[in-house]
């Protein structure tokens, strides 16, 4: 594969991509394999920030952080003269993680075939603000779902989570929720959004349980009072991995707060970066279990590591095998939301019924889908594949068209999905397929290079008129990123060290565009350098 440093035309807007050296895919597996990561954590190497907003005497929060061992036990040892040292407080920081699309092989994956999923540039952003020593509370402000909740740290069931046989460490592989721990957590979820409808409360409690289970597993009674503010640019419940993305943000933020992650920093070897991502991914999977019950682990893996993955599930009682595609190309992708509600289980059942009725025909379709995924893996793994070259894009696009046709044959498309395909085909601007379960949800279009702004505008107008949601994204983006400290500028311009992104600014950012403009990983003039990523590619 060629390396590229590019700005592709995207409906008249330049698309930002980064330069990465590329080589063939690694076969390292994340999330679903036996733990090998039991080494003690290296100390974190994020640069400590310049003091912001004037000088802080060290607070007990910072002191506690500095004296908390890897198992969360507080070390009470003080300095020689038993007085507080002047060290900076943990800064306000931010983490961000992407959503995902299934690029090839939805449905056939349910029947043991290989599928490919990849990250997209729609992302969740979580701002973490350490509170002053006197505030012994943990607060969530998640305005996308109108969730606002505060727990008193000292009231939380720490002893149950740290009891012998129950305590889990940051390096553990947790593959199931512990029913006793879930029961201990339950009373602390009961007063979440008490005045909302049952339906809304369920959503709020799922999100709150994801956070609380991770906090109680990774934290300790000495955990610093903190405020977590989350905003996401990923539509919720459209099959684009919004829940995995927030689980990755929460897992990453908590692991950073207990100082069990090394980096990210630019010189970090890929191997070390992958270990950090693996840690985050394992805990994000636990968060996903709180929201979903029985997730496959694919969404959180793609969201943590970014790029793409091939996944296959030959034994349905086990999680799928996940092989990272560290060098998945960055490609311009249009995601269109039909806004048509769909049920993944109903669509999966449809295919199951078809297979019963027409076993040979259905098996041939599924086999053909497997060949499409195989062909796509070969294509993008080939050294000749060049995301800048129209013929490479066309080959990949054709595979998407075939995959969509096969999904139609399985009966999982929907007139609103077909309408998107028709509109895109009419303009001749790219290759479209449904993504995820179908029956509604989203379609993805791989755009031809240099699509004319007029054609793009015409398509946008029609989609708008017909009530579709549209997102201009990039496929194959970075996974979890860290903005440390969370400042608007890099802090180089003046002595004050940059302007802090406080909660108000973040909450007041206007819509998706406002969030992207204020804190976005992908700024108007290319990717923001202040965001750091664990570089997983060799
Ligand atoms: N921005 C967000 N803020 C708070 N919770 C969120 C957010 N995005 C997703 N969630 C949680 O994830 C759930 C959506 O998961 P799911 O239905 O699987 O959709 P998706 O396919 O987008 O992951 C929501 O009901 C909510 O609990
Ligand atoms: C249809 C299926 O292959 C993908 C479902 O994707 P989503 O939940 O719609 O993102 C089901 C599955 O893999 O569990």
Automatic annotation (TrEMBL):
Keywords: ATP-binding, Cytoplasm, Kinase, Lipid biosynthesis, Lipid metabolism, Magnesium, Metal-binding, Nucleotide-binding, Steroid biosynthesis, Steroid metabolism, Sterol biosynthesis, Sterol metabolism, Transferase. Its EC number is 2.7.1.36. It is an enzyme of class 2 (transferase). It is found in: Cytoplasm. GO terms for cellular component: cytosol. Residues 219-302 form the GHMP kinase N-terminal domain. The keyword Nucleus does not apply. It catalyses: (R)-mevalonate + ATP = (R)-5-phosphomevalonate + ADP + H(+). PROSITE patterns: GHMP_KINASES_ATP. Residues 22-50 have a biased composition (Low complexity). GO terms for biological process: ergosterol biosynthetic process; isopentenyl diphosphate biosynthetic process, mevalonate pathway. Residues 392-457 form the GHMP kinase C-terminal domain. Residues 1-89 are annotated as: Disordered. The keyword Kinase applies. Pathway: Isoprenoid biosynthesis; isopentenyl diphosphate biosynthesis via mevalonate pathway; isopentenyl diphosphate from (R)-mevalonate: step 1/3. Mevalonate kinase; part of the second module of ergosterol biosynthesis pathway that includes the middle steps of the pathway. The second module is carried out in the vacuole and involves the formation of farnesyl diphosphate, which is also an important intermediate in the biosynthesis of ubiquinone, dolichol, heme and prenylated proteins. PANTHER family: MEVALONATE KINASE. Belongs to the GHMP kinase family. Mevalonate kinase subfamily. This is Mevalonate kinase. It comes from Phialocephala subalpina.
């Amino acid at each position: 594969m060629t390396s590229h440093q590019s700005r592709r035309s995207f409906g008249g807007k330049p698309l930002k991509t980064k330069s990465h050296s590329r080589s063939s895919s690694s076969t390292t597996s994340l999330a679903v394999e036996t733990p090998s990561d039991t080494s003690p954590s290296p100390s974190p190497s994020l640069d400590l920030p310049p003091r912001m907003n004037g000088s802080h005497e060290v607070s007990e929060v910072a002191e506690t952080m500095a004296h908390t061992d890897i198992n969360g036990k507080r070390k009470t040892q003080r300095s020689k003269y038993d007085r507080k040292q002047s060290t900076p407080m943990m800064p306000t920081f931010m983490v961000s993680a992407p959503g995902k699309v299934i690029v090839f092989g939805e449905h056939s994956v349910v029947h043991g075939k290989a599928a490919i999923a990849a990250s997209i540039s729609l992302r969740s952003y979580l701002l973490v603000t350490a509170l002053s020593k006197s505030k012994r509370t943990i607060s969530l402000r998640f305005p996308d779902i109108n969730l606002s909740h505060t727990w008193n740290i000292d009231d939380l069931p720490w002893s149950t989570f740290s009891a012998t046989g129950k305590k889990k460490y940051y390096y553990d592989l947790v593959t199931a929720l512990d029913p006793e721990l879930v029961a201990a957590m339950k009373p602390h979820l009961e007063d979440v959004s008490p005045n909302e409808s049952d339906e809304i409360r369920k959503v709020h409690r799922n999100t709150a349980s994801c956070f609380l289970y991770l906090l109680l597993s990774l934290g300790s009674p000495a955990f610093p009072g903190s405020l977590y503010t989350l905003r996401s640019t990923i539509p919720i419940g459209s099959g684009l991995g919004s829940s995995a993305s927030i689980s990755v943000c929460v897992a990453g933020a908590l692991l950073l707060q207990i100082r069990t992650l090394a980096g990210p920093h630019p010189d970090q070897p890929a191997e070390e970066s992958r270990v950090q991502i693996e840690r985050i991914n394992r805990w994000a999977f636990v968060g996903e279990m709180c929201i979903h019950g029985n997730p496959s682990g694919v969404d959180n893996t793609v969201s943590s590591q970014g790029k793409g993955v091939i996944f296959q599930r030959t034994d349905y009682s086990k999680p799928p095998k996940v092989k990272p595609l560290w060098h998945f190309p960055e490609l311009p992708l249009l995601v269109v939301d039909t806004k048509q509600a769909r049920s993944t289980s109903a669509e999966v059942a449809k295919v199951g019924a078809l297979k019963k009725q027409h076993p040979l025909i259905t098996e041939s379709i599924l086999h053909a889908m497997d060949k499409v995924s195989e062909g796509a893996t070969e294509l993008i793994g080939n050294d000749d594949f060049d995301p800048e070259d129209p013929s490479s894009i066309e080959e990949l696009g054709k595979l998407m068209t075939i995959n969509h046709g096969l999904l139609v044959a399985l009966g999982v498309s929907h007139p609103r999905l077909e309408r998107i395909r028709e509109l895109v085909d009419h303009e001749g601007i790219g290759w479209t397929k449904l993504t995820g379960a179908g029956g509604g949800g989203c379609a993805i279009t791989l755009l031809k290079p240099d699509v004319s702004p007029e054609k793009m505008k015409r398509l946008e107008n029609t989609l708008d008129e017909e009530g579709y949601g549209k997102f201009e994204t990039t496929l194959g983006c970075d996974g979890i990123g860290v903005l440390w400290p969370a400042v608007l500028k890099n802090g180089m311009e003046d002595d004050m060290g940059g302007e802090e992104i406080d909660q108000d600014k973040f909450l007041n950012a206007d819509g998706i565009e406002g969030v992207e403009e204020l804190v976005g990983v992908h700024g108007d003039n290319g990717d923001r350098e202040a965001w750091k990523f664990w570089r997983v590619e060799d």
